[in-house]
Amino acid sequence: MSSALASPASRRGFLLVVLAAVCWGTAGFSGRIVAERAGLGPLDIAWHRMAIGAAVMLIGTAFSRRRTAPKVAVTRGTAVRLFVVGAGLGAYQLAYFAAVSLAGVSISTLVALGLAPLLIAVGGTVLGHGRPERATIVALVVALVGLVLLVGVSAQADTGTTVLLGALLAVGSALGYALVTLAGGGIPAGIPVTLAGFVGGALLLTPVALIAGLHFTTDPVSLALLLYLGAVPSALAYTFFFTGLRSVPGAVASIVTLMEPLTATALSTAFLGERLAPVALAGGLLVLAAVAGLYLRRLRETGGSRTARTAAWTPAVDASGEASMAPRADA
């Protein structure tokens, strides 16, 4: 793996991937602060993130050279996939922030980000009508054991029903991310999937938020954090990640992005007073170890070539630099 990062370009790319993971890891923490300060609900926070993120990406695209990239025809099948990406992105953002409000940042992020890649690997196998590899089965079993320890111990130490409900919402977030990723994997290179996902997700969330009663805030700190959510863990982090992928093997980047749940846990522990019992923390580490093990196996099989950031498929980066890859669950 070290030989894959020998050149200066690879080292710069590696740093960009690290920065992207750290940015993603601040999303749940920022959302929790907004909820506590401004009283906004998960739907309000998810809508603000999607809408601001879409606006920032549209502005960035308008001022970039990507306008000169060759246009790709959008077929009916591609349009359906883009709709699924947008709907899934909005749904798992909502589920994630709802999980954070109930179970806290640490548990929600570890469950959602740890389980999602494994669900993608299993889903990819099922859709391919093939038998799961032994490594995938082992990783899934290890991750499930870790989730039982993480959620079970935490539920016993706190209000059990609340933590379990939050964990279930985090599982729903992981399922949504897996659906988005599998749907996005079939979209041709040249179509800005991340941009389309954020715009579509924002448009689909808007009537839901208006019917439920969309709330805004005038609190300066909360407004700044909402702008941060849309600009940094969304638009900027994706830019960092896709730029880094040009010189860093995808499997290496996949392992590095496990810093995301570690960053979220560190922030919630230091500033929100969240504490995981030792056994629960061991469960969370088991989840991350299962994902890392699956990625390492994929990296060995491909000899360090550019592979999928998730364990299921490879993001294709076209000449304009736009990756045909579904957005992150972020979390």
How is this fold's topology laid out?
Layout: H1 8-25, H2 27-38, H3 42-62, H4 76-103, H5 105-127, H6 134-157, H7 160-184, H8 193-212, H9 220-245, H10 250-256, H11 259-271, H12 278-302, E1 316-317, E2 323-324
Antiparallel strand pairs: 1-2
Helix pairs in contact: 1-9, 1-11, 2-4, 2-9, 3-4, 3-8, 3-9, 4-5, 4-7, 4-8, 5-6, 5-7, 5-11, 5-12, 6-7, 6-12, 10-12
How would you sum up this structure, described in words?
The protein is mainly alpha-helical and 331 residues long. The protein has one domain. Helices cover 73% and strands 1% of the residues. It is built from twelve helices and two strands, in the order H-H-H-H-H-H-H-H-H-H-H-H-E-E. A two-stranded antiparallel ribbon has the order 1-2. Strand 1 and strand 2 form a beta hairpin. Helix 1 packs across helix 11 and helix 5 packs parallel to helix 12. About 7% of the residues have low confidence.
Termini distance? 27 Å
What value does the average pLDDT take? Answer: 81
SSE run = HHHHHHHHHHHHEE
Structural class: mainly alpha
Strand content: under 5%
Number of strand elements: 2
Count of individual helical segments: 12
Count of domains:
1
- Rg value: 19 Å
Dominant shape: globular
What is the strand arrangement across the widest sheet? 1-2
Biggest β-sheet description: 2 strands, antiparallel
Helix content: over 70%
Low-confidence stretches: 304-327
Short note summarizing the structure:
By secondary structure, this protein is mostly helical.
